[in-house]
Design a protein that fits this description.
Elements: H1 24-32, E1 37-42, E2 45-51, E3 54-57, E4 60-61, E5 75-80, E6 83-90, E7 102-105, H2 107-110, H3 116-133, E8 145-148, E9 153-156, E10 164-165, E11 170-178, E12 182-187, E13 199-202, H4 209-221, E14 224-236, E15 241-252, E16 264-269, H5 270-274, E17 279-280, H6 286-297, E18 310-311
Parallel strand pairs: 1-6, 11-15, 17-18
Antiparallel strand pairs: 1-2, 1-4, 2-3, 2-7, 5-6, 8-9, 9-10, 11-12, 11-13, 12-16, 14-15
Protein name: NAD(+) diphosphatase
Enzyme class: hydrolase
EC number: 3.6.1.22
Protein backbone atom coordinates (compact mmCIF):
# COMPACT_ATOMS: atom_id res chain seq x y z
CA UNK A 1 0.00 0.00 0.00
CA UNK A 2 1.56 3.35 -1.03
CA UNK A 3 2.17 5.92 1.73
CA UNK A 4 -0.65 8.37 2.30
CA UNK A 5 0.25 11.81 0.90
CA UNK A 6 0.34 14.64 3.45
CA UNK A 7 -2.71 16.77 4.06
CA UNK A 8 -2.78 20.34 2.82
CA UNK A 9 -0.60 22.64 5.00
CA UNK A 10 1.54 19.63 6.00
CA UNK A 11 4.58 18.00 4.43
CA UNK A 12 8.29 18.80 3.99
CA UNK A 13 7.79 22.25 2.47
CA UNK A 14 10.52 23.97 4.49
CA UNK A 15 13.95 23.47 6.05
CA UNK A 16 13.25 24.99 9.45
CA UNK A 17 16.96 25.21 10.32
CA UNK A 18 16.11 25.57 14.01
CA UNK A 19 19.82 25.61 14.89
CA UNK A 20 20.11 29.06 13.31
CA UNK A 21 17.59 30.69 15.65
CA UNK A 22 20.32 31.44 18.21
CA UNK A 23 23.05 32.33 15.70
CA UNK A 24 22.93 36.10 15.62
CA UNK A 25 25.67 36.46 13.01
CA UNK A 26 23.95 34.14 10.56
CA UNK A 27 20.63 35.87 11.07
CA UNK A 28 22.14 39.32 10.52
CA UNK A 29 23.73 38.04 7.32
CA UNK A 30 20.33 36.74 6.20
CA UNK A 31 18.73 40.11 6.89
CA UNK A 32 21.46 41.86 4.89
CA UNK A 33 20.94 39.56 1.91
CA UNK A 34 18.76 41.27 -0.74
CA UNK A 35 17.44 37.85 -1.82
CA UNK A 36 15.98 36.99 1.61
CA UNK A 37 12.22 36.41 1.54
CA UNK A 38 9.64 37.93 3.87
CA UNK A 39 6.10 36.59 4.34
CA UNK A 40 3.74 39.46 5.23
CA UNK A 41 0.79 38.79 7.55
CA UNK A 42 -1.81 41.50 8.13
CA UNK A 43 -4.63 40.89 10.62
CA UNK A 44 -4.11 37.12 10.15
CA UNK A 45 -4.48 37.50 6.38
CA UNK A 46 -1.81 36.33 3.94
CA UNK A 47 -0.36 38.25 1.02
CA UNK A 48 -1.54 36.59 -2.20
CA UNK A 49 -0.67 37.18 -5.84
CA UNK A 50 -3.41 36.51 -8.39
CA UNK A 51 -2.64 36.02 -12.06
CA UNK A 52 -5.87 35.23 -13.82
CA UNK A 53 -7.30 32.31 -11.90
CA UNK A 54 -3.89 31.21 -10.57
CA UNK A 55 -3.08 32.04 -6.95
CA UNK A 56 0.42 32.04 -5.48
CA UNK A 57 2.04 33.38 -2.35
CA UNK A 58 3.36 36.92 -2.56
CA UNK A 59 6.78 37.38 -0.98
CA UNK A 60 8.61 40.60 -0.23
CA UNK A 61 12.28 40.33 -1.26
CA UNK A 62 14.88 42.12 0.84
CA UNK A 63 14.29 43.96 4.11
CA UNK A 64 14.82 47.28 2.34
CA UNK A 65 11.33 46.78 0.89
CA UNK A 66 9.91 46.89 4.44
CA UNK A 67 10.67 50.40 5.69
CA UNK A 68 9.86 50.96 9.34
CA UNK A 69 9.83 47.28 10.29
CA UNK A 70 11.72 46.51 13.50
CA UNK A 71 14.05 43.56 12.79
CA UNK A 72 13.47 42.33 16.35
CA UNK A 73 9.82 41.73 15.46
CA UNK A 74 10.65 39.41 12.56
CA UNK A 75 10.21 35.66 12.97
CA UNK A 76 12.74 33.31 11.41
CA UNK A 77 10.92 30.54 9.54
CA UNK A 78 13.86 28.77 7.93
CA UNK A 79 15.01 28.21 4.36
CA UNK A 80 12.49 28.04 1.53
CA UNK A 81 13.55 27.20 -2.03
CA UNK A 82 17.14 27.89 -1.06
CA UNK A 83 16.48 31.31 0.47
CA UNK A 84 16.22 32.48 4.06
CA UNK A 85 12.64 33.37 4.95
CA UNK A 86 11.08 35.42 7.76
CA UNK A 87 7.51 36.17 8.78
CA UNK A 88 6.62 39.81 9.28
CA UNK A 89 3.47 41.05 10.99
CA UNK A 90 1.94 44.24 9.60
CA UNK A 91 -0.25 46.35 11.90
CA UNK A 92 -2.53 49.30 11.44
CA UNK A 93 -4.75 50.00 8.48
CA UNK A 94 -4.80 47.76 5.43
CA UNK A 95 -1.43 48.15 3.65
CA UNK A 96 -1.59 50.18 0.46
CA UNK A 97 -0.38 47.99 -2.38
CA UNK A 98 0.72 49.41 -5.72
CA UNK A 99 0.31 46.07 -7.48
CA UNK A 100 -3.41 45.42 -8.12
CA UNK A 101 -2.74 41.68 -8.48
CA UNK A 102 -1.65 41.45 -4.81
CA UNK A 103 -4.13 41.33 -1.95
CA UNK A 104 -4.45 40.07 1.63
CA UNK A 105 -6.75 37.06 1.78
CA UNK A 106 -8.01 34.50 4.27
CA UNK A 107 -5.72 31.49 3.96
CA UNK A 108 -8.38 29.16 5.38
CA UNK A 109 -10.48 29.61 2.24
CA UNK A 110 -7.79 29.55 -0.45
CA UNK A 111 -5.13 27.14 0.85
CA UNK A 112 -6.19 24.41 -1.58
CA UNK A 113 -5.75 26.74 -4.55
CA UNK A 114 -2.11 27.54 -3.72
CA UNK A 115 0.97 25.45 -4.50
CA UNK A 116 1.15 23.02 -1.53
CA UNK A 117 4.56 24.14 -0.28
CA UNK A 118 3.49 27.80 -0.35
CA UNK A 119 0.27 27.06 1.52
CA UNK A 120 2.25 25.32 4.26
CA UNK A 121 4.70 28.21 4.58
CA UNK A 122 1.92 30.80 4.78
CA UNK A 123 0.19 28.74 7.47
CA UNK A 124 3.40 28.58 9.51
CA UNK A 125 3.91 32.34 9.19
CA UNK A 126 0.29 33.03 10.17
CA UNK A 127 0.54 30.80 13.24
CA UNK A 128 3.76 32.41 14.47
CA UNK A 129 2.52 35.98 14.03
CA UNK A 130 -0.75 35.16 15.77
CA UNK A 131 1.09 33.59 18.71
CA UNK A 132 3.39 36.59 19.04
CA UNK A 133 0.53 39.09 18.83
CA UNK A 134 -1.50 37.32 21.51
CA UNK A 135 1.38 36.84 23.97
CA UNK A 136 2.83 40.34 24.24
CA UNK A 137 2.46 40.27 28.02
CA UNK A 138 3.67 37.80 30.59
CA UNK A 139 0.95 35.49 31.85
CA UNK A 140 2.63 35.32 35.26
CA UNK A 141 3.31 38.95 36.18
CA UNK A 142 1.75 40.98 33.35
CA UNK A 143 4.97 42.67 32.20
CA UNK A 144 5.66 43.12 28.46
CA UNK A 145 7.42 40.24 26.72
CA UNK A 146 10.46 40.56 24.49
CA UNK A 147 11.22 38.31 21.50
CA UNK A 148 14.37 36.22 21.44
CA UNK A 149 15.76 33.28 19.48
CA UNK A 150 14.54 34.84 16.24
CA UNK A 151 10.98 35.21 17.46
CA UNK A 152 10.55 31.66 18.72
CA UNK A 153 10.72 32.59 22.41
CA UNK A 154 9.00 35.44 24.24
CA UNK A 155 10.70 36.35 27.51
CA UNK A 156 9.24 38.44 30.31
CA UNK A 157 11.00 41.79 30.58
CA UNK A 158 10.63 41.81 34.37
CA UNK A 159 14.01 40.77 35.77
CA UNK A 160 12.33 39.36 38.86
CA UNK A 161 10.21 37.05 36.67
CA UNK A 162 11.94 36.30 33.34
CA UNK A 163 9.46 33.55 32.51
CA UNK A 164 9.51 32.24 28.94
CA UNK A 165 6.72 31.51 26.50
CA UNK A 166 7.01 29.22 23.51
CA UNK A 167 4.83 28.86 20.40
CA UNK A 168 1.70 26.94 21.31
CA UNK A 169 -0.80 24.82 19.44
CA UNK A 170 -4.21 23.59 20.49
CA UNK A 171 -4.71 19.87 19.79
CA UNK A 172 -8.15 19.00 18.46
CA UNK A 173 -9.54 15.62 17.42
CA UNK A 174 -11.64 15.25 14.29
CA UNK A 175 -13.33 11.96 13.50
CA UNK A 176 -15.26 10.23 10.75
CA UNK A 177 -17.76 7.98 12.55
CA UNK A 178 -19.30 5.20 10.45
CA UNK A 179 -21.52 2.18 10.92
CA UNK A 180 -20.04 0.72 7.74
CA UNK A 181 -22.56 1.97 5.21
CA UNK A 182 -23.23 5.44 6.62
CA UNK A 183 -21.16 8.40 7.83
CA UNK A 184 -22.10 10.61 10.77
CA UNK A 185 -21.95 14.33 9.98
CA UNK A 186 -23.16 17.39 11.86
CA UNK A 187 -23.66 21.10 11.23
CA UNK A 188 -23.39 24.30 13.24
CA UNK A 189 -26.26 26.77 13.24
CA UNK A 190 -24.06 29.53 11.78
CA UNK A 191 -23.30 27.55 8.61
CA UNK A 192 -25.24 28.08 5.38
CA UNK A 193 -28.00 25.51 4.76
CA UNK A 194 -26.81 22.10 3.64
CA UNK A 195 -23.27 22.29 5.02
CA UNK A 196 -22.20 19.36 7.19
CA UNK A 197 -18.85 18.16 8.49
CA UNK A 198 -17.19 15.51 10.62
CA UNK A 199 -17.29 15.64 14.41
CA UNK A 200 -14.49 17.59 16.09
CA UNK A 201 -13.47 19.12 19.39
CA UNK A 202 -10.51 20.18 21.52
CA UNK A 203 -8.57 17.77 23.70
CA UNK A 204 -8.95 18.54 27.40
CA UNK A 205 -6.17 18.43 30.03
CA UNK A 206 -5.53 14.95 31.37
CA UNK A 207 -7.22 13.33 28.36
CA UNK A 208 -5.82 10.99 25.72
CA UNK A 209 -6.64 11.53 22.07
CA UNK A 210 -8.73 8.37 21.95
CA UNK A 211 -10.67 9.40 25.04
CA UNK A 212 -11.29 12.81 23.49
CA UNK A 213 -12.75 11.17 20.38
CA UNK A 214 -15.18 9.07 22.43
CA UNK A 215 -16.19 12.04 24.59
CA UNK A 216 -16.68 14.53 21.75
CA UNK A 217 -18.77 12.12 19.69
CA UNK A 218 -20.95 11.32 22.69
CA UNK A 219 -21.37 14.98 23.73
CA UNK A 220 -22.25 16.24 20.27
CA UNK A 221 -24.24 13.30 18.90
CA UNK A 222 -25.05 10.76 21.64
CA UNK A 223 -23.55 8.04 19.45
CA UNK A 224 -21.22 5.49 21.07
CA UNK A 225 -18.02 4.52 19.28
CA UNK A 226 -15.31 1.87 19.39
CA UNK A 227 -12.31 0.93 17.24
CA UNK A 228 -10.89 4.44 17.35
CA UNK A 229 -8.01 4.50 14.83
CA UNK A 230 -5.58 7.28 13.96
CA UNK A 231 -5.77 8.50 10.35
CA UNK A 232 -3.53 11.57 9.86
CA UNK A 233 -2.98 15.12 11.10
CA UNK A 234 -3.17 18.63 9.70
CA UNK A 235 -1.83 21.97 10.93
CA UNK A 236 -4.83 24.31 11.09
CA UNK A 237 -3.67 27.74 12.26
CA UNK A 238 -7.15 29.27 12.44
CA UNK A 239 -6.06 30.43 14.87
CA UNK A 240 -3.71 27.78 16.35
CA UNK A 241 -5.04 24.23 16.07
CA UNK A 242 -3.45 20.93 15.19
CA UNK A 243 -6.17 18.66 13.82
CA UNK A 244 -5.65 15.00 14.74
CA UNK A 245 -7.78 12.87 12.44
CA UNK A 246 -9.39 9.57 13.44
CA UNK A 247 -11.93 7.06 12.22
CA UNK A 248 -14.27 5.26 14.58
CA UNK A 249 -16.98 2.59 14.35
CA UNK A 250 -20.37 3.22 15.94
CA UNK A 251 -21.56 0.61 18.43
CA UNK A 252 -24.69 2.64 19.18
CA UNK A 253 -26.24 4.59 16.30
CA UNK A 254 -29.16 6.44 17.91
CA UNK A 255 -28.59 10.19 17.73
CA UNK A 256 -29.21 12.17 20.91
CA UNK A 257 -27.42 15.50 21.19
CA UNK A 258 -26.14 16.03 24.71
CA UNK A 259 -25.10 19.67 24.19
CA UNK A 260 -26.20 22.39 21.76
CA UNK A 261 -22.93 22.85 19.88
CA UNK A 262 -24.39 21.32 16.73
CA UNK A 263 -27.71 22.34 15.21
CA UNK A 264 -28.23 19.01 13.46
CA UNK A 265 -26.58 15.59 13.22
CA UNK A 266 -27.45 12.94 10.63
CA UNK A 267 -26.31 9.67 9.14
CA UNK A 268 -25.53 9.94 5.42
CA UNK A 269 -25.10 7.12 2.91
CA UNK A 270 -22.69 7.13 -0.01
CA UNK A 271 -25.70 7.56 -2.29
CA UNK A 272 -26.74 10.67 -0.34
CA UNK A 273 -23.28 12.14 -0.80
CA UNK A 274 -23.05 11.21 -4.48
CA UNK A 275 -26.43 12.80 -5.14
CA UNK A 276 -25.51 16.09 -3.48
CA UNK A 277 -27.92 15.76 -0.56
CA UNK A 278 -25.23 17.20 1.70
CA UNK A 279 -22.54 19.82 1.06
CA UNK A 280 -19.15 18.41 2.05
CA UNK A 281 -16.29 20.43 3.59
CA UNK A 282 -13.61 22.19 1.55
CA UNK A 283 -11.37 19.69 -0.23
CA UNK A 284 -8.15 20.91 1.40
CA UNK A 285 -9.47 20.13 4.90
CA UNK A 286 -8.75 16.94 6.80
CA UNK A 287 -12.51 16.64 7.28
CA UNK A 288 -12.97 16.13 3.54
CA UNK A 289 -10.04 13.72 3.50
CA UNK A 290 -11.68 11.55 6.17
CA UNK A 291 -14.98 11.46 4.28
CA UNK A 292 -13.21 10.81 1.00
CA UNK A 293 -11.20 7.85 2.27
CA UNK A 294 -14.31 6.24 3.79
CA UNK A 295 -16.36 6.89 0.65
CA UNK A 296 -13.75 5.55 -1.75
CA UNK A 297 -13.29 2.37 0.32
CA UNK A 298 -16.80 1.24 -0.59
CA UNK A 299 -17.65 2.98 -3.86
CA UNK A 300 -17.18 1.98 -7.48
CA UNK A 301 -16.19 5.53 -8.45
CA UNK A 302 -13.95 7.89 -6.43
CA UNK A 303 -15.66 10.73 -4.60
CA UNK A 304 -13.84 13.41 -6.60
CA UNK A 305 -15.15 11.91 -9.84
CA UNK A 306 -18.80 11.86 -8.80
CA UNK A 307 -20.52 14.62 -10.84
CA UNK A 308 -23.32 15.15 -8.34
CA UNK A 309 -21.16 15.74 -5.26
CA UNK A 310 -21.77 19.11 -3.60
CA UNK A 311 -19.02 21.03 -1.80
CA UNK A 312 -18.84 24.14 0.35
CA UNK A 313 -18.61 27.11 -1.99
CA UNK A 314 -15.12 28.59 -2.27
CA UNK A 315 -13.48 31.26 -4.41
CA UNK A 316 -12.54 29.96 -7.84
CA UNK A 317 -8.91 29.18 -8.46
Amino acid sequence: MPPRPPNTLAGPYLERAAHRRKDEALLQAALANPETLFVPVWETRSSILRRGELLTAHFVTGIQALPGVDPRELVWLGEFRGQAVFAVGLSGERPQLTDPTVDFQDLRMIAGALPPEEAGLLAYARAMIHWRDTHRFCGRCGSPTQPSESGHVLRCSNEACRSQQFPRIDPAVIVLVTDGERALLGRQASWPPGRYSTIAGFVEPGESLEDAVVREVHEETGVGVESVDYHSSQPWPFPSSLMLGFTAYANRTDILRVDDELEDVRWWTRADIANGAVALPITHSISFRLVEDWYDSGATRPLREEPGVRLWQLPRR
